[in-house]
Automatic annotation (TrEMBL):
Record-level GO BP terms: regulation of canonical Wnt signaling pathway
Pfam families linked: GSKIP_dom (PF05303)
GO cellular component: cytoplasm
Domain GSKIP: 28-128
MF terms (GO), sorted A to Z: kinase regulator activity; protein kinase A binding
Higher taxonomy: Eukaryota, Metazoa, Chordata, Craniata, Vertebrata
Family (UniProt): Belongs to the GSKIP family.
Originating organism: Neogobius melanostomus (round goby)
Protein name (Swiss-Prot/TrEMBL): Gsk3b interacting protein
Length: 133
């Protein structure tokens, strides 16, 4: 599997580097876009929701993992959590726990994500080895 990364460090980049600091408040919409760009290579589909209202303090991300299951994720200062089991679907009765990172959340949901992430990391290490680093 070939991974197309614009940045050589895309696998381990921090999405916080792409955020705009607005007086101590991160724009969660921008943060959500950065998250999508960071892990899109390891899921079937992922995009920021255009149907659900995002704001400075909350954004929603739709993700379909490699196993075919769809989720709606909520991103806040507390982290990421599953809020629905379909795109653009928020179930207020769900009480899922927050994950600090998208990597942790996807690792808990998808063996296919773990495999894709591991393969991309191995390819990166192999390229470094071939370049004599």
């Amino acid at each position: 599997m070939e991974v197309d990364c614009q940045s050589e460090d895309c696998i381990v980049s921090s999405f916080e580097d792409d955020c705009i600091d607005l007086g101590g408040v991160k724009d969660m919409r921008l943060e959500a876009e950065a998250i999508v760009n960071d892990v899109l290579f390891a899921v079937t589909e992922m995009h920021v929701s255009h149907s659900l209202n995002s704001a400075l303090d909350v954004a929603y991300i739709n993700v379909e993992i490699r196993e075919g299951t769809q989720y709606c994720l909520e991103l806040t200062e507390a982290g990421l959590r599953v809020v629905g089991y379909a795109f653009d679907n928020v179930n207020e009765d769900l009480s899922t726990h927050y994950h600090e990172t998208v990597y942790s959340l996807l690792d808990s949901l998808s063996p296919g994500y773990r495999e894709a992430f591991g393969n991309a990391l191995l390819q990166r290490l192999e390229r470094l080895k071939q370049n004599g680093h």
